[in-house]
Amino acid sequence: MPTSKTANAPEAPRIFACSVIAGGAGKTQDVINLAVEAAGRGHSVAVADFDPQRTASHILGYQDPPEGQPTIFDVLQGKHSLEEAVVPARYRIGEGEDDSAFRLIPNLDLILGTPEMADAEVNLGLDPAGVLWLQNVLDEQLPEGRWSIMFFDCGPTLGILLLSIAMVGPEVIGCVADEFKYIIGLQDLEDTLDKGARKFRRFGFRTEVQHILATNIPLDAQGNIRRSGGAVADDAIKAIRGNPDWHPKLLPIIRRKQRFKDTIVTQRPLRFLDPRNEALQDIAAVADALGIPRLNSTRKR
């Protein structure tokens, strides 16, 4: 006879998977800044870096995997456990690569990325059950209560790696920016998930794009799109708002700021690079819209 969960039983983590087909949409910035925001609100958070460009790992303090340190690719291959690929997220405060050159980010872990993830499609394609690898890892290796929120930085692919991520049932965030090519990519992403649902429905695949996040959009002081700063961006957002299926999924817009690019050079997320930046208000609004509550206080940072 099945038993009911107790009132205090830990819940499975809430998972957000940020995906985009074309580069330059601010996908990794979305992952990093939302993860830092959620951690700052008192949640235990993990970022999983599936993108072979590994920009998320770089910004969070790891240009290359430390010698002997397992990565997400080692987990995919079954060589190491998920926990062995976890490192504490950090940001740079000094020169060099010693631990003293970095400061840890409270409540935030990183499942380390690697350029080897470029071979993930081939590896998974050789395994008849490859699409289930991540679901099996989370089911078998993720302790209850380890993290309350996970953010997945997906690679720019529409293949089996994306479908394996979608198999775990995340809330998919389709990321777009200030060009119309991202609107085309958003439709391609939806089509891919629809095909996955038809092919893998017997495995419980029902994932779809649940949220749309526009980043690097020129906004005026009132938060409206500044057409003089980019007519194409205005047209792209109008295309989303004019689609009855997409409009309800559109999250608060994150404005264009040069400092986002600086976070990559400095290895410092925007919160620690420029704590008064206006875009942080946009990021907080996105977190609110996603229903990520403040657990630690009513203080807004």
UniProtKB/TrEMBL annotation:
The AAA domain, residue ranges: 15-195
Coiled coil: none
InterPro entries: AAA_dom (IPR025669), DNA_Partitioning_ATPase (IPR050678), P-loop_NTPase (IPR027417)
Stored Pfam families: AAA_31
Gene3D superfamilies cross-referenced by the UniProt entry: P-loop containing nucleotide triphosphate hydrolases (3.40.50.300)
Entries under PANTHER family matching the protein: COBYRINIC ACID AC-DIAMIDE SYNTHASE, P-LOOP CONTAINING NUCLEOSIDE TRIPHOSPHATE HYDROLASE
Protein name according to UniProt: Cellulose biosynthesis protein BcsQ
UniProt organism field: Streptomyces paradoxus
Lineage: Bacteria, Bacillati, Actinomycetota, Actinomycetes, Kitasatosporales
